[in-house]
Write a structure and sequence with these properties.
The structure holds two protein chains of two kinds. Chain A is mainly beta. Chain A contains no helices and eleven strands. The mean pLDDT of chain B is 95. Classes of the chains: A mainly beta, B mainly beta.
Chain lengths: 107, 118
Protein backbone atom coordinates (compact mmCIF):
# COMPACT_ATOMS: atom_id res chain seq x y z
CA UNK A 1 0.00 0.00 0.00
CA UNK A 2 1.23 3.45 -0.94
CA UNK A 3 0.95 6.33 1.50
CA UNK A 4 0.78 9.78 -0.07
CA UNK A 5 1.84 12.67 2.16
CA UNK A 6 0.88 16.16 1.10
CA UNK A 7 2.47 19.33 2.40
CA UNK A 8 1.81 21.86 3.62
CA UNK A 9 -1.57 21.15 5.15
CA UNK A 10 -2.63 24.74 4.61
CA UNK A 11 -1.16 27.40 2.34
CA UNK A 12 -2.13 31.02 2.99
CA UNK A 13 -1.51 33.19 -0.06
CA UNK A 14 -2.83 36.26 -1.83
CA UNK A 15 -4.33 36.38 -5.33
CA UNK A 16 -1.56 36.71 -7.89
CA UNK A 17 0.96 34.78 -5.82
CA UNK A 18 2.52 31.45 -6.75
CA UNK A 19 1.43 28.28 -4.98
CA UNK A 20 3.65 25.22 -4.67
CA UNK A 21 2.09 22.02 -3.32
CA UNK A 22 3.98 18.83 -2.57
CA UNK A 23 2.95 15.18 -2.70
CA UNK A 24 5.42 12.56 -1.50
CA UNK A 25 4.80 8.83 -1.93
CA UNK A 26 6.06 6.11 0.42
CA UNK A 27 7.31 4.21 -2.63
CA UNK A 28 7.96 4.98 -6.26
CA UNK A 29 4.79 5.60 -8.25
CA UNK A 30 4.64 3.17 -11.14
CA UNK A 31 4.52 4.83 -14.54
CA UNK A 32 4.19 8.25 -12.88
CA UNK A 33 0.48 7.45 -12.45
CA UNK A 34 -0.09 10.49 -10.27
CA UNK A 35 -3.03 12.88 -10.58
CA UNK A 36 -4.00 16.15 -8.92
CA UNK A 37 -7.56 17.24 -8.20
CA UNK A 38 -9.20 20.43 -7.00
CA UNK A 39 -12.13 20.19 -4.61
CA UNK A 40 -14.44 22.99 -3.52
CA UNK A 41 -17.12 22.66 -0.81
CA UNK A 42 -20.20 20.89 -2.08
CA UNK A 43 -18.70 20.33 -5.53
CA UNK A 44 -17.36 17.32 -7.35
CA UNK A 45 -13.57 17.04 -7.40
CA UNK A 46 -12.11 18.21 -10.70
CA UNK A 47 -9.16 16.55 -12.38
CA UNK A 48 -6.36 19.03 -13.03
CA UNK A 49 -3.27 16.97 -13.83
CA UNK A 50 -2.70 13.32 -14.77
CA UNK A 51 0.44 11.31 -15.48
CA UNK A 52 2.23 13.70 -13.13
CA UNK A 53 2.51 16.55 -15.64
CA UNK A 54 -0.27 16.42 -18.26
CA UNK A 55 -3.06 18.97 -17.95
CA UNK A 56 -6.59 17.64 -18.19
CA UNK A 57 -8.96 19.01 -20.79
CA UNK A 58 -9.92 22.62 -20.19
CA UNK A 59 -7.49 23.25 -17.33
CA UNK A 60 -5.77 26.66 -17.52
CA UNK A 61 -2.04 26.68 -18.13
CA UNK A 62 -1.37 28.39 -14.79
CA UNK A 63 -1.69 24.87 -13.36
CA UNK A 64 1.33 22.65 -13.88
CA UNK A 65 2.52 19.37 -12.48
CA UNK A 66 6.03 18.02 -12.18
CA UNK A 67 8.02 15.28 -10.54
CA UNK A 68 8.71 11.60 -10.88
CA UNK A 69 9.42 8.56 -8.77
CA UNK A 70 8.11 9.43 -5.34
CA UNK A 71 8.14 13.24 -5.31
CA UNK A 72 5.58 15.35 -7.12
CA UNK A 73 4.62 18.99 -7.21
CA UNK A 74 1.58 20.98 -8.28
CA UNK A 75 2.30 24.60 -9.09
CA UNK A 76 -0.25 27.35 -9.61
CA UNK A 77 1.72 30.15 -11.21
CA UNK A 78 -0.59 33.05 -10.31
CA UNK A 79 -3.52 32.42 -8.01
CA UNK A 80 -6.92 33.52 -9.26
CA UNK A 81 -9.81 34.02 -6.80
CA UNK A 82 -11.44 30.79 -8.00
CA UNK A 83 -8.28 28.77 -7.21
CA UNK A 84 -8.75 28.93 -3.44
CA UNK A 85 -9.79 25.37 -2.65
CA UNK A 86 -8.50 22.03 -1.42
CA UNK A 87 -6.10 20.09 -3.65
CA UNK A 88 -5.34 16.43 -3.34
CA UNK A 89 -3.05 14.03 -5.11
CA UNK A 90 -4.02 10.54 -6.18
CA UNK A 91 -2.04 7.52 -7.30
CA UNK A 92 -4.06 5.50 -9.78
CA UNK A 93 -3.71 2.07 -11.29
CA UNK A 94 -5.07 -1.21 -9.98
CA UNK A 95 -6.24 0.65 -6.87
CA UNK A 96 -6.34 4.27 -5.82
CA UNK A 97 -4.47 6.01 -3.03
CA UNK A 98 -5.03 9.58 -1.92
CA UNK A 99 -3.08 12.26 -0.15
CA UNK A 100 -4.57 14.10 2.80
CA UNK A 101 -5.00 17.32 0.86
CA UNK A 102 -3.65 20.86 0.94
CA UNK A 103 -6.01 23.75 1.56
CA UNK A 104 -5.09 26.91 -0.32
CA UNK A 105 -6.71 29.79 1.52
CA UNK A 106 -6.78 33.53 1.05
CA UNK A 107 -4.25 35.34 3.19
CA UNK B 1 -20.74 17.60 -21.08
CA UNK B 2 -19.98 14.70 -18.77
CA UNK B 3 -22.33 14.30 -15.83
CA UNK B 4 -21.95 11.90 -12.92
CA UNK B 5 -24.83 11.72 -10.46
CA UNK B 6 -24.89 9.51 -7.36
CA UNK B 7 -28.00 8.67 -5.39
CA UNK B 8 -29.26 6.31 -2.73
CA UNK B 9 -27.51 7.68 0.35
CA UNK B 10 -29.52 7.44 3.55
CA UNK B 11 -29.50 6.91 7.29
CA UNK B 12 -29.23 3.19 8.04
CA UNK B 13 -28.73 1.21 11.22
CA UNK B 14 -25.59 -0.81 11.89
CA UNK B 15 -25.88 -4.21 10.24
CA UNK B 16 -28.19 -2.88 7.57
CA UNK B 17 -27.86 -2.74 3.80
CA UNK B 18 -27.97 -0.01 1.21
CA UNK B 19 -27.55 0.23 -2.54
CA UNK B 20 -26.05 3.30 -4.14
CA UNK B 21 -26.48 4.18 -7.80
CA UNK B 22 -24.46 6.35 -10.13
CA UNK B 23 -25.78 7.49 -13.50
CA UNK B 24 -23.27 8.76 -16.03
CA UNK B 25 -23.88 10.69 -19.23
CA UNK B 26 -21.80 12.48 -21.81
CA UNK B 27 -19.28 9.74 -22.52
CA UNK B 28 -19.13 6.06 -23.42
CA UNK B 29 -19.88 4.48 -20.06
CA UNK B 30 -19.59 0.92 -21.32
CA UNK B 31 -15.91 1.39 -22.14
CA UNK B 32 -14.96 3.02 -18.85
CA UNK B 33 -13.48 1.59 -15.71
CA UNK B 34 -15.42 2.95 -12.73
CA UNK B 35 -14.59 3.48 -9.07
CA UNK B 36 -16.31 4.14 -5.80
CA UNK B 37 -14.49 6.42 -3.37
CA UNK B 38 -15.61 7.62 0.03
CA UNK B 39 -14.68 10.66 2.08
CA UNK B 40 -14.85 11.42 5.77
CA UNK B 41 -13.57 14.43 7.71
CA UNK B 42 -11.38 12.17 9.82
CA UNK B 43 -9.91 9.76 7.29
CA UNK B 44 -10.06 11.83 4.14
CA UNK B 45 -10.50 10.12 0.79
CA UNK B 46 -10.53 6.33 0.70
CA UNK B 47 -10.88 4.08 -2.34
CA UNK B 48 -13.69 1.54 -1.95
CA UNK B 49 -13.38 -0.49 -5.12
CA UNK B 50 -13.66 -0.55 -8.88
CA UNK B 51 -15.08 -2.43 -11.82
CA UNK B 52 -13.45 -2.73 -15.21
CA UNK B 53 -15.31 -2.38 -18.47
CA UNK B 54 -16.75 -5.58 -19.88
CA UNK B 55 -14.26 -5.35 -22.71
CA UNK B 56 -11.48 -5.36 -20.13
CA UNK B 57 -13.02 -8.34 -18.35
CA UNK B 58 -15.60 -6.68 -16.11
CA UNK B 59 -13.70 -7.74 -13.01
CA UNK B 60 -13.89 -6.03 -9.64
CA UNK B 61 -11.31 -5.13 -7.00
CA UNK B 62 -12.02 -3.95 -3.48
CA UNK B 63 -10.15 -2.24 -0.69
CA UNK B 64 -9.74 -4.32 2.45
CA UNK B 65 -12.57 -2.63 4.44
CA UNK B 66 -15.03 -3.40 1.63
CA UNK B 67 -14.11 -6.99 0.84
CA UNK B 68 -16.85 -9.48 1.62
CA UNK B 69 -19.39 -6.76 2.49
CA UNK B 70 -19.60 -4.50 -0.58
CA UNK B 71 -20.28 -5.42 -4.18
CA UNK B 72 -19.88 -3.28 -7.29
CA UNK B 73 -21.83 -3.93 -10.46
CA UNK B 74 -22.78 -2.10 -13.62
CA UNK B 75 -25.61 -1.91 -16.12
CA UNK B 76 -24.16 -0.60 -19.35
CA UNK B 77 -27.59 -0.43 -20.99
CA UNK B 78 -28.59 2.13 -18.35
CA UNK B 79 -25.18 3.85 -17.99
CA UNK B 80 -25.42 3.04 -14.30
CA UNK B 81 -22.95 1.91 -11.67
CA UNK B 82 -24.02 0.32 -8.40
CA UNK B 83 -22.56 -0.20 -4.96
CA UNK B 84 -24.33 -2.77 -2.81
CA UNK B 85 -23.33 -2.37 0.81
CA UNK B 86 -24.18 -5.04 3.38
CA UNK B 87 -23.39 -5.49 7.07
CA UNK B 88 -22.85 -1.77 7.40
CA UNK B 89 -20.77 -0.42 10.27
CA UNK B 90 -20.66 3.00 11.88
CA UNK B 91 -17.23 3.50 10.32
CA UNK B 92 -18.81 3.25 6.85
CA UNK B 93 -20.39 6.65 7.45
CA UNK B 94 -19.09 8.87 4.64
CA UNK B 95 -19.88 10.73 1.46
CA UNK B 96 -19.64 8.19 -1.35
CA UNK B 97 -18.43 9.27 -4.77
CA UNK B 98 -18.58 7.59 -8.12
CA UNK B 99 -15.57 8.35 -10.30
CA UNK B 100 -14.34 7.34 -13.71
CA UNK B 101 -10.82 6.07 -13.97
CA UNK B 102 -8.23 8.73 -14.70
CA UNK B 103 -7.57 7.52 -18.27
CA UNK B 104 -11.27 8.09 -18.96
CA UNK B 105 -11.11 11.67 -17.74
CA UNK B 106 -11.25 11.36 -13.96
CA UNK B 107 -14.83 12.61 -13.66
CA UNK B 108 -16.47 12.56 -10.25
CA UNK B 109 -19.99 13.18 -9.02
CA UNK B 110 -20.95 15.38 -6.10
CA UNK B 111 -21.40 12.41 -3.82
CA UNK B 112 -24.16 10.91 -1.71
CA UNK B 113 -24.14 10.80 2.09
CA UNK B 114 -24.39 7.50 3.90
CA UNK B 115 -24.89 7.65 7.64
CA UNK B 116 -24.70 4.47 9.68
CA UNK B 117 -26.11 5.05 13.12
CA UNK B 118 -28.62 3.62 15.57
Amino acid sequence: ETVLTQSPGTLSLSPGERATLSCRASQSVSGNSLAWYQQKPGQAPRLLIYAASSRATGIPDRFSGSGSGADFTLTISRLEPEDFAVYFCQQYGRSLFFGGGTKVEIK
Amino acid sequence: EVQVVESGGALVEPGGSLRLSCVVSGFTFSEAGMNWVRQTPGKGLEWVGRIKSKRAGGTTDYAAPAKGRFSISRDDSQNTLYLQMNSLKTEDTAVYYCATSVPEGGYWGQGTLVTVSS
